[in-house]
C-alpha cells in the first residue's frame, strides 16, 4: 500500500478532528456536571431561604420570572424568597435536562414543591415547568434568567 502526502495529511486531519471532538465532549460533560451542581445548590438555597447562597448563585442582572407572570430582579427575588412569609417544605426538580452551548447552559425540569404560609399555616403545592439559563463567568456558572409555567 502506497501512502502519499495527501493521504497522510487527510488522515492526520481526521485524527485531529476526532481528538478535538472528544476533548470538546469532555469539556461539555464537565460543564454539564458543574451546572448540575449549581442547580442543586440553588434548590438547596431555596429550601433554606439562604440569601447569601442565592446571591452567590445569581448573576447581578438576574431576570426571575414566576408562573404568575411577575418578574423580579436579583435583589427583589432574594428579598421575596427569604422574607419568611412562607417556607418550602419540599422542592423537587424532576427530570432535569442540561444543554451547554458555549458559555451558556439551558436547564429544564419539572418543579414539584410544597410551601407553608407563615400567616395561616396553609400548605400550598406547586407543579411547574422551569426553564433556567446559566452563564459561565470565568470558571463559575451564574443564574442569568429563570421562567416558570404552570402545569
Automatic annotation (TrEMBL):
The keyword Signal applies. Keywords: Signal. InterPro entries: DUF4440, NTF2-like_dom_sf. Residues 36-143 form the DUF4440 domain. It holds the Pfam family DUF4440. The keyword Signal applies. Residues 1-27 form the signal peptide. This is DUF4440 domain-containing protein. It comes from Bradyrhizobium centrolobii.
